[in-house]
Amino acid sequence: MENQDQVYVFATWKVKQGEIDKVLDLLKTVREESIKEDGNLFYKVHQSNLDANTLVLYEGYINEAAIEEHRNSSHFQELVLGKIVPLLENREIVLTTLIQ
Length: 100
Fold this sequence. Notes:
Blueprint: E1 7-15, H1 20-34, E2 40-47, E3 54-61, H2 64-72, H3 74-84, E4 88-96
Antiparallel strand pairs: 1-3, 1-4, 2-3
């Protein structure tokens, strides 16, 4: 059920050449841990059809506080910031609210 507090994250990651397998492997664990969070609605990983090194993460959270909780989690700090971000060329994150 949708409510106005829910926040959706679209994160576009451009992975450095030769690092996609390592990033996808780490992301499996990040996803498994993220969907266990109380405030998480879903965590979906997409790969570009035109460029295998471009990933788009689509995540749903019950509210902004749940996103903060996610960002402060050990799996986000250790795996995303500690291990994945150094393997990325670029990382863009957009927080959104569903309007229709």
